[in-house]
Amino acid sequence: MRVPAPDLARGGMLLLIAIANTPWYLWGRQLRPSTIHPPGGSMLDRAVQVASIVTVDFRVYPMFAFLFGYGMVQLLTRQEAAGQDRPSVLAQLRRRNAWLLVFGFLHAALLWQGDILGAYGLAGLLLARFFLHRADRTLLTWSAIGAALLTLATLGGIAAACLAAAAPVRPETVGYLPLGAAPGGQSDPLAAALDRLTFWPVVTIGQGLLTLALPVAIVLGFWSARRRILEQPGRHLPLLRHVAIVGVAVGWLGGLPHAAAVMGWLPVPPELMFVFEITQMTTGLPAGLGYAAAFGLLGHRVSRRRTGALVTAVTAVGRRSLSAYLAQSFLCAPVLAAWGLGLGAHLHSAAMAGYAISVWLVTVTGAWLLERHRLRGPAEIALRRLARRSPDVLVPGPLSGRGRRNRSFPPPQLPSRGSVRVSPYDATSPAVTPDLVNDKSARRTDNNAAPGAS
Predict the structure, then answer these.
(1) What is the pTM of this model?
(2) Lower CB density within 10 Å: C or N end of the chain?
(3) CA distance 436 to 92
(4) What is the pLDDT of residues 12-40, one digit of tens each?
């Protein structure tokens, strides 16, 4: 039986990724320093901005990071169940994450400065090295430490805001970035590429490590995959319900103050807007975990009834999430950026959201056609071949040279008849489909794999 939750979650979240990324192409206008959403516009534009700030901005990537960590453990256990030794599998994981860094660099150089592949690759390299072999208690402890640091960052921002508010001299004018300062506003292709490559390391290191939300989500993904929470949601319904309700509530409530400040409903001096940016980022972690839990519940419900065409199509996108993620940039950057057709200068928030939905629907159609012909995505094929053929030149990870299994990690079990079988696609990352399973082993151990999985 196919486990739909991880792929369904990735496919649905790619829609939110498109909605989150496309406002960066609204160039040729003044921008507020606390948000990429431009001022002005119709009532519908402002409604779209509020909805995006509350439900999308800084909320989607932690959810994908959780699935990224989840997929790494799935791949490890499945490869060991197929007969590979742990050092070989860990080497494959390192090569895959290293190639993600390369993919991210090329993605930024050619199309999109907000690339997240590099952040996932960097975080995957380091966190797999230090946490993948650790006991469950250690994973939960470090996750709690990371969450506590995020909470302290929020409290520190509030304290700094109080001190700034008490200062005798405060700017009286609202600051704006200069006209055309949006990242898509550079008309020279070479200069635009240089700007993107300059910004890419900030995103890779900042989001991948320093903001803590992605590392905490990845480590929690390690723990959850050991419990098979998304593969067997029926056994974890109370946990999924609590995380979905609490996580989404905290995330959305945490985004409301920022939305109110951006819209001007709160009389906030410009020098204090950073507080709302901090709370926006820190509450993105519970929101992302809540989204993952909600899709786990949805996947449980879908698995108990006949799958409809929409679910099948969205799941197909999730199985080819790397290709779909890169396709979004191919459909957006040359059309919207100033170095391309420059359409972004003529749109506002609502129209841009409509364009993002259209782009997602194009990727859904393409993924559905590939699914019908039992084909993988082109980016997944490239990553799989590169990761399998590349020499392992990185520093060996834990246990990679010892030839013995860590007792804290649950031993793999070969699938048995009548049990839930997990396709190689279920080990995919948020924007990555590793699918590094040996073809012959996959056919032996996963006879019910989804079309194109072998």
Answers:
(1) 0.81
(2) N
(3) 8
(4) 999 999 999 999 998 887 777 678 888 88
